[in-house]
Amino acid sequence: MKYYEETEGFVEDGLIGGNQPQVVHNVSLAANASISRGELLCSTDGVWSPATTAADSSKPLAIAASDCVADSIGAVTPAYMAGCFNSGKVIVGGADSLTAGTFAQSLRTQGIWLTKEG
Q: How far apart are the first and last CA of the chain?
């Protein structure tokens, strides 16, 4: 078994913000949710959906590790639970005034650090 292996077809998208390891965990996605890699997620009673309001910063947070479209009963998708990510690549839905920076303090307490691109 190889410890490290290159995967064909991977295109670097700039989401990962450093050399620190990321912690990935499978999460249960809300029914009919559609998420993109890098989208900020929040949990309500163990069901994850896109973070869309500043109030979501008080909930458990994660960053989607891949694109996923849930059906009418939901889906399971991988999400980053810890690591270092480029703030400009983290997607936040909802009001135009919301950015990853809005959630930075809450993310930090959960082991997710945001960096500036560059």
A: 35
Cα–Cα distance measured from residue 27 to residue 77, given in angstroms and rounded to the nearest whole number = 6
Tokens representing 111 are 């082991």
What are the 10-residue block averages of pLDDT along the chain, 118 residues in total?
57 81 94 94 95 93 95 95 94 84 93 82
What integer pLDDT is reported at residue 3 of this predicted model?
58
Count of structural domains within the chain: 1
CATH number of the domain bearing residue 74: 2.40.300.10
CA atoms within 13 A on the CB side of 8: 0
Say what the pLDDT of residue 98 is. 86
Q: Is position 3 within any domain?
A: no
From residue 67, alpha-carbon distances to 33, 34, 106 in Å are 11, 8, 23
